[in-house]
Design brief:
By secondary structure, the protein is of the alpha+beta class. Helix content is 34%, strand content 23%. The protein contains 11 helices and 22 strands. The strands form 6 sheets. It has a 6-stranded mixed sheet, with helices on both faces. Strands 10, 12, 14, 15 and 16 form a 5-stranded antiparallel sheet that branches. β4 and β5 form a beta hairpin. The longest helix has 20 residues. The structure holds zinc ion. The site of zinc ion has 4 residues, from α5. It is an enzyme of class 3 (hydrolase). One of its GO terms (biological process) is lysine biosynthetic process via diaminopimelate.
């Protein structure tokens, strides 16, 4: 056997492994894992990682241990004893290569009405080279790619010469506290593994085989407006908080437009069409068609640039909301609750040796250097970038309709990403005959 597998061998092996990837991802998707209730998916993955012979541990999410940390976000769900997973391939005795940690989130976003899905959201199916289901793209497919990369090397008779870690986390979609808890445990001897076990981090979020060069910051705000209820026959005596909410949202969209002006952009986002998005994702309010309503609550997601402090952004947006409410009617009562993401943006160092090795691995497999993406969403990469010295980026398969209906991941892209991850392990960690 050759000392290391060739890119051709890795590509062929990834193709041969596709049935394993489909079976594994299908079972993973069929284990529902909305944020706050990820247990079925955690159990499935823990079983798989144990079957693969990995050294597996649970890292409990305990907000009390991490609430003092700068990157903590106010939780949306009770901890409830939920746990992250950390599994490691340990290098064979006598070998000591460099190491990598793959990090991915278990949680998925709400499905929307099941009737809109071709099959149910948790009914995985394969059609025309795509595997469908909530979480197939974001991001169970990427987690399966990382595990498949190790599996693939084993089928070729190799073992990584360094530690290869697999970290599956909770609450990425609403706070990022799962990864924060993992990092804290790795840094404070609360876990068997240590942060110093790892030399590089790859997060296989589904951004089309790109390397992430930067990501925006994201804050969530819940804004409750209280007006004055009345019978609509005497509408003038009432104060309608739902109508006020519409005006406040229109005003926030003007602020969003300002932040997107070329002269106001962070340089990492100069070529992105519309980097900053303010999203009204939820609205709740009113009681009766014929009553001026009492209250209205808006669930907002505010995007912003790297370098902007989340607390400052929240204060600025909050002041804008209060000013608009006052202008509409001084009697409107405004309450703002910053629950969920308080996630600063960051710029990744793609010139770090590990990240260059990843780019080269992708090029060896695909014949093309990877494109770079300045991302208009947040990812857990910020925790590693802002709170550790570890080189990190996002690199994962192509998906479509993530957070939408009929979410799917491309199986061909999963093959390429799996082979490229295996190539990265070969080039960065080294391999030995198993
Ligand atoms: Zn994701």
């Amino acid at each position: 056997m050759a000392a290391t597998p060739t890119p051709d061998q890795l590509r062929d092996a990834a193709q041969a492994l596709t049935p394993w990837m489909i079976d594994t991802l299908s079972a993973f998707v069929a284990a529902p894992s909305p944020s706050g209730a990820e247990q079925p998916a955690a159990d499935f993955l823990e079983g798989l990682m144990q079957d693969m012979g990995l050294d597996c541990e649970r890292i409990v999410l305990d907000s009390r241990q991490i609430e003092g940390l700068a990157l903590f976000s106010c939780p949306c769900d009770p901890d409830g004893g939920r746990h992250n997973l950390l599994a490691r391939h340990l290098p064979p005795a006598g070998t000591k290569g460099r190491s990598v940690l793959f990090n991915g989130h278990l949680d998925v976003v709400p499905t929307g009405p099941e009737s809109l899905w071709t099959a149910g959201p948790y009914v995985p199916r394969v059609e025309d080279g795509w595997l469908y289901g909530r979480g197939a793209g974001d991001m169970k497919g990427g987690i399966v790619c990382a595990l498949a990369a190790l599996q693939l090397l084993r089928t070729l008779g190799f073992a990584p010469a360094g530690t290869v870690g697999f970290n599956a986390v909770l609450d990425e979609e609403n706070t990022g506290n799962g990864t924060l808890a993992t990092l804290h445990a790795l840094q404070t001897a609360r876990a068997k593994a240590k942060l110093t076990d790892f030399d590089a981090v790859i997060i296989p979020e589904p951004f089309g085989e790109t390397l992430m060069s930067a990501q925006v910051g994201v804050s969530w705000l819940f804004v409750t407006l209280t007006g004055r209820p009345a019978h609509v026959a005497y509408m003038g005596q009432g104060l309608n908080p739902i109508e006020a909410a519409m005006a406040i949202m229109a005003d926030l969209k003007e602020l969003e437009a300002e932040w997107n002006l070329p002269e106001n952009r962070h340089p990492a986002f100069s070529d992105v069409a519309h980097p900053v998005n303010f999203n009204l994702g939820r609205i709740e309010g009113g009681e009766w068609n014929s009553s001026v309503p009492c209250t209205c609550t808006l669930g907002l997601r505010i995007g912003y640039y790297p370098g902007m402090d989340p607390a400052d952004v929240e204060a600025q947006v909050g002041a804008r909301i209060r000013a608009k409410a006052r202008a509409l009617n001084p009697a409107l009562v405004v309450e703002i609750d910053a629950r969920g993401h308080r996630s600063p943006g960051c710029v990744y160092d793609l010139e770090a040796p590990a990240m260059r090795t990843l780019a080269t691995a992708h090029a060896k497999i695909t014949g093309q250097p990877p494109a770079r993406l300045a991302c208009t969403a947040t990812t857990d990469g910020r925790h590693f970038r802002l709170a550790t010295d570890l080189p990190v980026t996002n690199y994962g398969p192509t998906a479509r309709n993530i957070h939408g209906i009929d979410e799917a991941v491309s199986l061909e892209s999963m093959q390429r990403v799996t082979a490229a991850m295996a190539q990265f392990i070969v080039d960065w960690c080294g391999v030995v005959a198993a």
